[in-house]
Amino acid sequence: MSATSQQASIPAGAATGRPRSGGTPPGAPAGAPRTRRPGARATLGALPWIGPALILIFGVVMFPAGVMFYNSTRDISLSGLDKGSVGLANFVEVFTFPYFWPILGRTVVWVVLVVGATVLISLGLAQVLTKAFPGRRLVRMVVIVPWAASVVMTTLVVYYGLEPYFGIINRFLVDVGLVDTPEGFGWTRNPGTAFAWAVVVAVFVSLPFTTYTIMAGLATVPAEVLEAARMDGAGPLRTYVSVVLPQLRSALAVAVLINIINVFNSLPILKVMTGSIPGYDADTIMTLIFKYIQNQHKLDVASALSVVAFLIVIVIVALYVRIVKPMQEV
User: H helices of 133-248, where?
Assistant: First the structure.
């Protein structure tokens, strides 16, 4: 047979190593089913099922975000009248605001302190709550209380508990000798101490979610793996660090990511604890946005600052997912 006739007998696409459209890939069994990408008809058929979710995402997330971006480039009066476009002037005002960079640094400190302390305490709580002891169910229910209660209510309880003359927390600190006189120190009047107590409250209300997420991760650790570590002579600490913590990678990664987003965007705790302090020495980006709206009545500048905060969160999440890879298996 000539070379020409041999080439003619080769099926189309075999010379290039690519399968024909809709054909079986090279090396696949002869009877293997053909794989086809879902077409437009399949996508349209799925719309009735995913349509409500898409509408909710658009209405709750995309549309408000679009309005926020739009308002950040407008000149909006005190009454809400749009006077026209100002380009990037609102962003220039944000970045030239003398307190912006200290507030940004304080926001980073706020997130790192709250998330770090929450994760460390939750690791210990989760480890304890997975052990069998009398009253464990009751203790688990008590841990949920800060999560179920209103954040504003919890913060107000601490806020009034720190009042110099009638606060029960302040009275306790006087009784144990940490404070000389009840009226001698105003915890919520000083920027540093008010910010520190806000961190304490934020950690307290963040513990339930993080603890239960870690407990769910602990439930997936195979018992035979722990038994093998004990048989190899590993002590409790070595077993926890070398065996348990790697198994908690996915649970910890998700808990940390969600806590970073929630703490960064937290307003009620700081608003209650530091709202009566003049100036900007205890503010984060969220409280600064609130002050732009409430005190300075600058809706357009507040929108620009919201865009900056939104982009910061997006960058943090993108870097975190890229580096940590939360869903990657151990």
Answer: 136-148, 151-161, 168-175, 191-219, 223-231, 236-239, 245-247
